[in-house]
Amino acid sequence: MALGLPRNLAVGREIFALVGAVAVLAMDDDAVCQAARLTMFGVGGTPVRPQRAEELLSGQRLERGCSTTRECVAAELEPDSDIHASAEYRREVGGVVARRAGRDRLGNAEGTQRADDSEADDSVTVNGRATKKRSKCV
Q1: Mean pLDDT score across all residues of the chain
Q2: Domains of the chain from N-terminus onward
Q3: Which of 40, 41, 92, 131 has the highest Cβ tally under 10 A?
Q4: Where are the alpha helices (DSSP H) in 21-135?
C-alpha cells in the first residue's frame, strides 16, 4: 500500500490550499491497482471521494502517462464558486491535483521518489484562459 502527504494547489500571499487530494493505492507486484481511495478537499463543503474514479482505477494496470484519473475526477466534481476560485477552476484543478496525488503514490509503490513536475503537461483552461502546469502523472 502506498501512502503519502496530500497534494494541493496553494496561491496568494496567505498560503492555503484551494484544492487538494489524498490518494491511497493498494498495488500488486504487477503494478495492478487492487484498490484505490481518493479524497478531495476544497471542492465542496466537506471532503469528497470521487468513487467513480476509484472504481475506474481499481483492477487496472496503472501507467504514468495516463490522463484517465484527471478526466474522471474533474467530471465527477461539483464544486461551488467563492471569492477565491470559480467552480470551473476548482473542477479542472481538482482533476490535475488528483492525478498528481495518484502519481506520487504510484511512485512510492514503485520505490521511486516524488516527481519533479517536469515530464508531462497539465494544462488548465478556465474562462478561455489556458495555464500550463507540468507534471508526471498517473
Answers
A1: 77
A2: 7-134 (3.30.390.50)
A3: 40
A4: 51-57, 68-76, 87-110
